[in-house]
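Running this now, will post back.
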Amino acid sequence: MNARKNRNVELLSPGGDADSVKAAIYAGADAVYCGLSTFNARQRASNLTLQELEQLIRIAEQKNCRIYLTLNTLVFDHEIPEVLELLKGAYQAGIRVVIVQDLGLLHILKTYLKEIEVHASTQLTTHNEGQISFLSRFGVSQINLSRELSFSEIKSLCSVAHQKKIKVEVFVHGAFCVSFSGQCYFSSNLCGKSGNKGACVQPCRREYAVPDAKNKKELRTVFNLKDNFVFADADKLFSTGVDSLKIEGRIKKFLYVYNVTSAWREQIDALQAGNDIKSNDTRLESVFNRKFTSGYVNGSLGEDMFIDTSRDQSLKFIANVTGYWADNKILSLDKDIEVNEDFEILIYTQDFTFICKGKLTKKITAQQYLFNIEHKLKGMVNKGHQVFTQDNLNAANGIKSKIDKMHWEKVPLRIFVSGRVGTKLKAVFTSPQKSITLFSEIPLTTASKRPLDNETLFSQFSRLGSSQFILENIDSSELEQESFIPQKELNRLRREAVDKLNDSTIDVSRFTIPQPEYQSPPAKRHKKAFFIDDISKHCASERMGDATVFVIPNRIKDVERTTALINENKHITPFFSSILIDEDFKRASELLMKLDRRMIITDNTGIADIASRSGIQWIAGPGFNIVNSYAVESLLDMKGFCGLFPSPEFSEKERGPINIPTHIDRWVALNLQPALMTTRQCLIRNISGCSKKICDDTCLLNCDRSATVTTSQGKRYRVIKKPGFYTILTRIIN
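Update: finished.
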């Protein structure tokens, strides 16, 4: 228990809008992650303006809290100037930490803007030690691990990261994606809204038509996971060595953020004090949730992790709507309910689309009520709509009143000036946190008219505008009387002092960077790869395209046999999959080193790192999500890098051309069926049935099944599970 007292762990909370950021700070978060209007993975969140961000950073600083900016989407070349302009504004507002997915943006920050601390987003799908080594090349200081990992897997990666002076961040509460983050293209394929561009429409929460026991179609939410819940196991997670506990929820509102953050604040404080922790907290269940699961961290991947509805489980059903008369503000229900003054309710459609929130202010008859709607209606209130309430709806008003009072206070600034005629003016600017000394560029002269005095000095130095400082005192006791210096020099000293006290150490001109340019022939031919997943069924003499590519399973059952099989087939190019966890990564690494040093293709950055350090030629696969020229440039320093597959999620028309050097080959797949999702879960059970309740290693190694689901628009998708591979989702072209 005492060992807990020797280390602190960060509580990292979400902030989708200004109220949510304030709620997180008020509830005791150590840091808050939030986004601006673009280039963050939650475009549906309200997000912040630069002006709001600056004010919130100042509030946070005074509460000993940090603000992290999310820039965790893929970025096209033509968008780079906009990203840099956004980043410049954020830096000037006080941002010093950014969370990043795109390899090109990682490269830009490492190369040109080293003063900014970089954290690796969960969108980088980090789940093995090789990937941590790969990311260390970019100077990242903190890595958010994939959400699918168990305690033992997290502990192993913490040890590796700490050896490289990198902190580890883990999600502990909130929504789960059924697919590995960063490797999901379902939303993009379904309706052209890319999750990797922050526009995911959450297709995994929708219902799909699947065959029932009589082979008829019924609707089910086959991909819908419960919410992440590590609260009861906080001590186990703490013992793995994690440095940051992250709460999901930038789309959620301030009450969710406050409740979850405050509950976790108390839990972490108990941990660090060596006290017993809670197994649950009513605050967690009183805000949005889809019920909870701790299946991943406990290594129990089963049917209990899924839920058959996307409805908010914190809502309490009270009645159905039987009528609504907008002119008279009368709402009729199918039940007689008791209402207190200003009884708050929420109305949803039968398929759980939100319509409105409001208050029942008066009971007119047994089943009719005066109803005042708050905010804008999301649709018509119709007969059959469902009415819910929440225990904490009224509590929101109390929290709102408190966060509305949160304003940043001006920081007092003291200035000491000294000097004699013929010497430079010395000015010492002191805030509670920092002191700096500046000198004038020209010497003091004898005043011919108005000499420097406290009134003149105060007049110029107090013009601090919208900065965080307010001038408290000027001491000119050691300044020679009747001395003089131009006002513009005093203004320059003031501006420089504010910049240095704010630690604005980056020259803003550096936010304009050169575009990578290579002498690449415009008509350079793409190399073509033909993919196979069974060498024994492939004729040795048959060769399709420029390379015949063997897709190595996620779980290699027999390393020696697989090595021999590949080495016997000299024309085969091995392909390493994107997901290689723990022992699977070790087996894949062992296989790589036993091969005859032929060129490989890899979707996993960890394998790329090993190949590079071992002098093996390697090609960056589609899973690298390369969509810009800077991402290519980021890999050029890695030994053995000789080719790449641009991300197939976007056409060249969408992303624009990518500059690639002449010695780097551009590859395309002839026949690869793209995986729209890759998951550690069993999805077959939810569609066509399976007697096993837990998905274990036997399932991974032996299961060979597929099933089909259909959207309401008639689009068909196939869930595929092959021996040794994780479950994937692919599109069926009708």
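The first helix runs from residue 18 to 27. More later if anyone needs it.
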